[in-house]
Amino acid sequence: MTINSQTEPITISTHTILHQHRDGYWLIADNPEGNVFGHIKCEINLAGKLILQAIDGNRNINEVVKELCDSNALDETQSRPWVTAFVDNMIERGILRVGRHSNHIPLTVVGTGDDIYPSHVSIEVTNACNLRCSFCYLCAGPDKRDRLDYQEITDLLDDFKEHGVVAVSLTGGEFFLHPYAIEILAYACNRFPSVGLLTNGTVFPQAAIDLLKQHRSQVTVSISIDSARPDLHNRMRGGRTAYERSTRTIRTLASNGILVRMSSVIVEDNMWQLDELAQLAISLGARAFSFNFVEGFGRGEAVKKQQSANFDPGYSKYVSTVIEKYRRLIPIFKGEELSNTRRNCGAGTSSVSIGADGTVRPCPLFPTSNKLKNVRDDSLSSILETPLHRALESIPAPSEANGCSRDCDHFYECHNCYLRGLNVNANRPANAYCSWIRKNELQALVGLVRREPEPITISRKRPHDAN
């Protein structure tokens, strides 16, 4: 997108927060569509922050360039191309717009460059679940008993708010099996501009619907439906009437104006149903549809091993066709692209997960390890400063540029996800670790994802320091 007018002022058009961390800023902005498709998220550097601060609703692009260069002793001729390119990108994302408007929204900056406190935290309030999904990465189920109590959760939420967290996700197990689920949801909605609720949708109290109606602009509810065929969904989820209850919940929430994303886990049995699932999402009133392929963690490990080694050669084309077909009707998310400025996906830095037992994990899929610290023993800020988390912060994502070989059978599986990269090596002897592990000296971290973690010694030397 290009700026057609050199004279029209540029305006910040939506509430935008910059969350500072050691290596730059996480940008989170309200979607100008009224949060219809969630929040806009990206990562920018100091230059991006300074450009946004130079935009006051009155300056045009020429004046923004001049203000930036005068304030920072920069050469206008050299700076203009990259400043204009950044502004164009922000306009394309919907964060900026050209033209005089009365509602310029000042930029909000939180955090400091001294820490790596995340902008998003996911809390598993309980690992109890009324279903027993065949692929559950957490191995949740009716027999599980771990849970954080109400005071622990509200103390955590208060700490997040104090440190500038702008987005929280609440999940389980099944979130609504927590005895104080409604109170926890209300507490989060009253403190954060973005709240995600992940649930199987089979037990959704009317009180929760009434609460969410009051917070429509800030909440996204994600409900899992894995097949357009009730019998298959129920078998995969381990619940006799799961399909009927979950689809009824999506319809009810949608009819009340609440943003619902239907999500699906893809295995061999439903891999050719993406088109049907997208149509189902639309028919139920969901505003987004996301899918991911089964992960090899928890009970999903056995499911993944049972699948054929290779999908049909035409499957990738099928997936692309479905995405393109529904692009204008319903957004389909396959996962966020990795920022060019970030070493990895941000798991453990821009976002962390806290389990029902209090264990801090880099992301929800990450297995619990006795080497990961617990918020019941220490604050999240101090946990994130431990040598282990500092090492995770610096892991270069698996890619060809970072040592992966295209001849590797797991090249596409691991791409940009260091958790999958570690997991692929978990059952190998040290002398058979992949080239990515060896090049980046990550041998000490492989034990984190083993079922019975081995003793791990992490030095303060970062993995990439040897490159």
Task: Tell me about this structure.
There is one protein chain. The protein is of the alpha/beta class. It has helices at 46-54, 61-72, 76-93, 150-162, 181-189, 206-214, 230-237, 242-255, 274-284, 300-306, 315-326, 380-383, 387-393, 411-414, 418-425, 435-439, 443-446, and strands spanning 10-12, 16-21, 24-29, 40-44, 96-98, 108-110, 120-124, 167-171, 194-199, 219-224, 259-266, 288-293, 332-333, 351-354, 360-361. Strand 8, helix 5 and strand 9 form a beta-alpha-beta unit. Helix 2 (61-72) crosses helix 3 (76-93). The two termini are 38 Å apart. Mean pLDDT is 85; it is low at 334-341 and 457-467.
Give a brief outline of the structure:
This protein has 467 residues and is an alpha/beta fold. It has 17 helices and 15 strands.
Rg over CA atoms = 23 Å
**Mean of pLDDT:** 85
Estimate what percentage of residues fall within beta strands: 5-15%
Helix content: 25-40%
Characteristic terms for this protein:
4-stranded mixed beta sheet; alpha/beta; 33% helix; 467 residues; single chain; disordered C terminus; globular; 17 helices
What does the secondary structure layout of this molecule look like, with pairings?
Blueprint: E1 10-12, E2 16-21, E3 24-29, E4 40-44, H1 46-54, H2 61-72, H3 76-93, E5 96-98, E6 108-110, E7 120-124, H4 150-162, E8 167-171, H5 181-189, E9 194-199, H6 206-214, E10 219-224, H7 230-237, H8 242-255, E11 259-266, H9 274-284, E12 288-293, H10 300-306, H11 315-326, E13 332-333, E14 351-354, E15 360-361, H12 380-383, H13 387-393, H14 411-414, H15 418-425, H16 435-439, H17 443-446
Parallel strand pairs: 2-6, 7-8, 7-14, 8-9, 9-10, 10-11, 11-12, 12-13
Antiparallel strand pairs: 1-5, 2-3, 3-4, 14-15
